[in-house]
Structure formats: C-alpha cells, structure tokens
C-alpha cells in the first residue's frame, strides 16, 4: 500500500511541479538543465501515474507491481473485484494510449518531413550567400531546419537573405544547425503527443510552449559559441519585425511566435545571468529522482 500511495503522491507532485516550472524564469538562463528537468517530470508523471493504477489493482496480491503481475496472470485475475479490475484497465489503457499517440506523432512528423523534402527538391536552390543551405524564392522572412537521421536541411527564404546582413545570417544558420545537431525535434515529440492525448488541459499546452522556448534558447546558446550574441539578437529582432509565418510541420524555425519569447531570448543573449547555485543543485538532484524513483517503486513489494 505504501508504494502505491507514494506513486500516487509522485504523480500529483509532478503535476504541481509542471505548473511551477511552466511559470519559472530561471530555466531561461540554463535551458539544457530546464529541458532535462521537463523530461524527468514527464517521465516521472507517466511512470508514476501508470504505476499507481497498477499498484492499486494488484493490492490483493501484496507483492507490488513487478512481483504481483505473475501471480495475477497465474490465477487469471481471480482476486480482483470490480474496483481493482477498473484500476488495472485504467493503467493498461493509459499505457496503450500514451504509446500509440507517441507512435502516431512520430509517423505524422516523418511523413510531413518526407513531403517537405520532396517539395524542397523541386523548388529550392543553392546560393553563395548561404553555403550549405537551401534557398526558397519567397519574399517573406523564413529560416528553419528540417531534421533527419542521416542528413538535416537548413532552409532560408530569399526574403531572409535581403533582411539580414552577412553576420546576422551566419548567426541564424548557426542557430538552425544547432537544432539539427542536437536533435531538438526528438525532445519535442513526447510533449507534442501528450498534448494530443489531453488537448483540453491547459497545463499540457503550457508545458509544450515552455519546452519549445527552452529549445530555442539552447540553440541560441550553441550559436553564440561561434558568433557574437549581438548578431543573433539583432537577427531575432528583424525577424520579429518582419512577422514571419509558422515553420512548416515537422521543422524547427528560428523565431517563435509572439513578441514576449523573442524579447526574452534577446535579453538573455545580451545580458546573460547565472542560475543561483542552490537552484542548479536542486534541479540537478531532482532529475534522477523524478526519473528513477517511480521505477524503483515498481519493484518493491507494496
């Protein structure tokens, strides 16, 4: 009973933690740490919620989840009453929904990228002003990355080449290559699929928005290793003023929607601030606890 109660408490705690983290501003100064904490929260919520449901279902066997499951299968769930059976179906059903929706999100993104790559092969061109980059003859501002397992493509529009000076363009390309190199698209997939599972829950949308912003900031940090922060900052401001449209499905663009994220990114580029030491230590310690504690509770007898 104790293990099941702890799993339920962790599940509730991760929801509260997600609410607080979605409003926190310290992750903006350490986006990679913030992304890792978000991933741990998501994994902890999923494993703890499923574990709480399965643990409650297997309470009549008094052996926990891992050791109680064989006993339940051996007697064909003979000890389960209606309440325990409903809990079992809830745990199995939630697992299936999360896995199926994640697979669906992956398939949808892969198909969108395949279609977009085929389109790029027909309409894009190379340009000496942006070596190693595909250029679209479009007057609007656009710069995005099409991630891939074997090769990623960085795409800019002709309008971007006119909008930015050479240094700003180099900073934007460095930002997009950072997305491709660090496979930020894989970070977003679980959160995007979770929003598909719970589209009416506002907190899930806020979580996805927070992770998307941190991913952009992480790419900004990698870009400023090779370029001056001011170059990327002025490029972001020019993009914001040009009001670019959303990046195509399955891609990662340089500019997030809305003025507030852009201003936040510009401010941290020009005036970086360290994360308080206590906050960094607490977040670093929380990551393995959130990720591993629910799994450990699967094993111990309840």
UniProtKB/TrEMBL annotation:
Example of a GO MF term: metal ion binding
CDD domains: M56_BlaR1_MecR1_like
Cofactor binding, per record: Binds 1 zinc ion per subunit.
Taxonomy, superkingdom: Bacteria
A Pfam match: Peptidase_M48
Residues in Peptidase M48 domain copies: 111-198
InterPro entries named in the record: Beta-lactam_resp_regulator, Peptidase_M48
GO BP term, example: proteolysis
UniProt keywords, alphabetically: Hydrolase, Membrane, Metal-binding, Metalloprotease, Protease, Transmembrane, Transmembrane helix, Zinc
Transmembrane segments: 6-24, 36-62, 82-107, 281-300
Cofactor(s) annotated in UniProt: Zn(2+)
Stated family: Belongs to the peptidase M48 family.
Protein name per UniProt: Beta-lactamase regulating signal transducer with metallopeptidase domain
Organism, scientific name: Actinomadura namibiensis
